[in-house]
Amino acid sequence: MTEQTPEPTTTHAERGAGHPRLLVSRDDERFIHEITTEEVRVGSAADNELPLRDCDPLHATIRHDERDEYVLTLHGAGEMNANPLSAATYPDDRSETLRTGAHFTAGPWTLVFARDEFADHGRPFGGRQGASTRTSLLSRPGPATTTRMATTSRAPG
After folding, report:
1. How far is 79 from 153, CA to CA, in rounded Å?
2. What one-character DSSP code corresponds to residue 108?
3. How far apart are the first and last CA of the chain?
4. What is the pTM of this model?
5. Which stretches of 5-145 are assigned E, i.e. beta strand?
6. Whether 58 contacts 75, CB under 8 Å
7. H or E element at residue 40
């Protein structure tokens, strides 16, 4: 009998499942940007998938990687909430693997990543299996403001 090292598990969801999206806000503007492409360029350039005024032409990119994770790289000045030394993030100090509730800024804009729990790889075994425990690998709570923003954000229209 051979011993195996325990590894974090993943979800059983289809690639890209879980309705990945960004909750975008600034002052009194709020909208939801659906992530439907393999890469989302964020910034003031008109050809970006998510054009936002008053920030760098290419302020950030979000890439859908081979592990079915969404990875943020911040090119312009701004804040991120991840600890870049965490096992769940990429080694670059301006990149992080996005989990539901992860937020970053681009100029005056605040962007919060959301993905339905069954597809969020930050939850072992494909989401909650009863109560969460301290041993839940790569799980961390989102900021207190995330819930409020998520419930008040609406698509423009």
Report:
1. 20
2. T
3. 61
4. 0.67
5. 21-26, 29-34, 39-43, 50-51, 60-64, 70-74, 95-97, 103-106, 109-114
6. yes
7. strand 39-43
Q: What pLDDT score was predicted for residue 40?
A: 98
d(CA 63, CA 79): 18
Sequence ranges of the domains in the chain: 21-123+141-152
Pick the CATH number of 21-123+141-152 from 1.20.1560.10, 2.40.128.20, 2.60.200.20, 3.90.550.10: 2.60.200.20
Q: Give the whole-angstrom CA distance, residue 127 versus residue 104.
A: 24
Chain segment 17-64, per-residue pLDDT in tens? 778 999 999 999 999 999 999 999 999 999 999 999 999 999 999 999
Residue 124 or residue 36, greater confidence: 36
Q: Record the tokens describing residue 43, joined without a space.
A: 């910034």
- Cβ proximity of 62 and 40 under 8 Å: yes
Identify any residues that bridge with 33 across adjacent strands, giving them in sequence order: 22
Of 1 and 76, the structure prediction assigns the larger pLDDT to 76
What pairs with residue 12 in β-bridges? none
What's the token pair of residue 98? 């996005």
Average pLDDT of 61-87? 82
pLDDT at 42: 98
